[in-house]
Amino acid sequence: MLEAPETWTAVVNPAAGRNRARARLPRLVHALAGSGLDVEVRVSVDAADLVQIADAADAQGRGVVACGGDGTVAALAGVAAEAGGVLGIVPIGAGNDFARQLAIPRDDVGAAVTVLRHGHVEHVDLGRARTADGTSCWLTTVANTGLDAEANRWANGVRWASGAPLYVLAALRTLARSRPRSFAITVDDETFELDAWLVAVGNTCSYASGMMITPDADVHDGRLDVCVVGPVGRVQFLRTFPTVFRGTHVRHPMVRTWQATRVTIESRAAGPVPELWANGERVGPLPASLEPVPRALAVMTP
Questions:
Q1: Closest to 66 measured CA to CA, from 82, 77, 52
Q2: What is the mean pLDDT of the segment spanning 106-113?
Q3: How far apart are alpha carbons 31 and 34 in whole angstroms?
Q4: Going edge to edge, which strands form the sheet with 275-278?
């Protein structure tokens, strides 16, 4: 079993949380300075720099602390998984759903820093997603296509709202402009042809700041959870939508769920090719394939 690192590099994404992380930087630096840990703080200038800093830290045998949202955490989780290093998380982004799954404090920077000192190293599953253009990414939370992917695309351009309220607004806005699409979804060795508003594949229970789209997902079971919301009418969609925050939407007769070790999503509709999004970021066009990578990540948890 891996031990907690003796030295750390905290990699800060100041753009996380729609630039709100920048305002939290003084509080973060103060908490790290008072933690008693041997930690250096590095502020990244862009996504490539984020990964380069983490790569260098892992090469030196240092633990890496991801200070940002789910996009930042996913990028640095991939670095840690490939290098065999240990990841710490101080969630200061908009969604923070991977931290939510691991019970890492999300609203208290000091409490999250305490996990680095007094927590333990736990091995958890990640997923791996690949799209038609050859793009590959690590999956920490949820990958999705359809209505929620388009909502995510719009929400990423908004700076005046954040968290769950923003994602609710984005979903409602997209619902009014969209319609169900035809997909072919292969779950392990069985293929289903169906129309759906959205297809979500979860390593964690939630995305979009607490929307429990795959409520039974477990980062220790070596599987991914699939949720498909079928072509329910708009009015019924609106009535059912609030139940996603409790995970009870899966009881609706037009919602189908599976657990799998291999998932493929293909579009069967004419027109623009739908895109796969993961961890709140664009991955690439369908078709997409996804699979779990059991115990891929060593991460500090309470």
A1: 77
A2: 94
A3: 5
A4: 255-260, 224-229, 198-202, 142-146, 275-278, 281-285
How far does CA 33 lie from the centroid of its chain?
Answer: 28
Point out which residues pair with 130 in neighbouring strands: 136, 289
Grouping H, G, I as helix, E, B as strand and the rest as coil, residue 256 is strand
Q: Which tokens in the block code for residue 85? A: 């290093």
**For residue 35, what are its two tokens?**
């933690």
Q: Which residues contact 144 (CB under 8 A, 6 or more apart)?
A: 152, 198, 199, 200, 201, 207, 213, 276, 277, 278
The alpha carbon dihedral of 79, 81, 83, 87 has a sign of: positive
- For the segment 167-210, what is each residue's pLDDT rounded down to a tens digit? 778 888 888 888 999 999 999 999 999 999 999 999 999 998 89
DSSP 206: -
DSSP state, residue 207? B
Whether the CB-CB separation of 174 and 150 falls below 8 Å is answered with yes
Residue ranges of the alpha helices (H) in 190-280?
A: 234-240
Identity at 131, one-letter amino acid code: T
Question: Which region, left, alpha or beta, applies to residue 279 given φ > 0 means left and ψ of -120 to 50 means alpha?
Answer: left
Q: 39: alpha, beta or left, given left = phi > 0 and alpha = psi -120 to 50?
A: beta
